[in-house]
Amino acid sequence: MDMDFAIFRQAADNVNDERNVRARFYDKAVKTDKTTANGLPIFKNVTYVEIRLKDNNTEVFNQPASEEKIKRFPREYGMYQAAKQQAENGTPLNQFAFLTAAEIATCGNRGIFTVEALAGLSAEKVRDLGLENEHHLAELFMQAAKSVDAVAVFARKEEEYLNEIEKLKYENNELKQIIKKNNKSKTLNRRKGEKYENNS
């Protein structure tokens, strides 16, 4: 272990002074020793923590998150949990093409991780957090998404109606065939009856 990394490790493990340390929790896909029936590898999500010294972009502590690291960085772990929870019910901001990396980081720092959460902020909260531009873009996106949803709903309804019309046409043709068959049968029976009467 070289001296620089030893100093970095000592600083990263120093729980008494967090002023010069930044932490980020995230999910990482880790290959397990299991495989599928086809021999393909199986992966699992593991919570990792990345710890950096401020003003040092070269040295990084990056390991699975231990209980000790979670207790040491409760705010960062809470932000990670909030981001996961919001992402389950919304569109993550990093998939929202209208925001810059700086704007996404600003929102994340304020506990906002999805477009829906950003668009749903009250005017007062938007003002307090200083997210006026970001909020406006998220609102426009949500309005456009609703329009797209409305078009999709209309298209689905139209398809349902067309399918129903086709079904009714098919049933109508079947009824016509049955009526035609019955009429033919009646005509044959009538002719047989007339033939019988004539022969008598």
What this model shows, in words?
Strands 1-2-3 form a 3-stranded antiparallel sheet. The chain has a domain at 1-72. The model is unreliable at 1-12 (pLDDT under 50). 14% of the residues are buried. Helices cover 60% and strands 16% of the residues. The protein is built from 7 helices and 3 strands. It has helices at 3-12, 67-72, 74-88, 101-109, 115-119, 123-129, 132-199, and strands spanning 21-35, 41-53, 60-64. It starts with a helix and ends with a helix. It is of the alpha+beta class and 200 residues long.
Supply the key terms.
200 residues, 3-stranded antiparallel sheet
Annotate the secondary structure layout:
Layout: H1 3-12, E1 21-35, E2 41-53, E3 60-64, H2 67-72, H3 74-88, H4 101-109, H5 115-119, H6 123-129, H7 132-199
Antiparallel strand pairs: 1-2, 2-3
Structural shape: elongated
Largest sheet data = 3 strands, antiparallel
What share of residues are in beta strands?
15-25%
Order of helices and strands: HEEEHHHHHH
Number of helices: 7
Uncertain stretches:
1-12
Biggest β-sheet: strands ordered side by side in the sheet: 1-2-3
Instruction: Give the beta-strand count.
Output: 3
> What portion of residues is helical?
55-70%
Average pLDDT across residues?
76
Q: What structural class is derived from the secondary structure elements?
A: alpha+beta
What is the distance, rounded to the nearest whole angstrom, between the alpha carbons of the first and last residues?
121 Å
C-alpha Rg (nearest Å): 34 Å
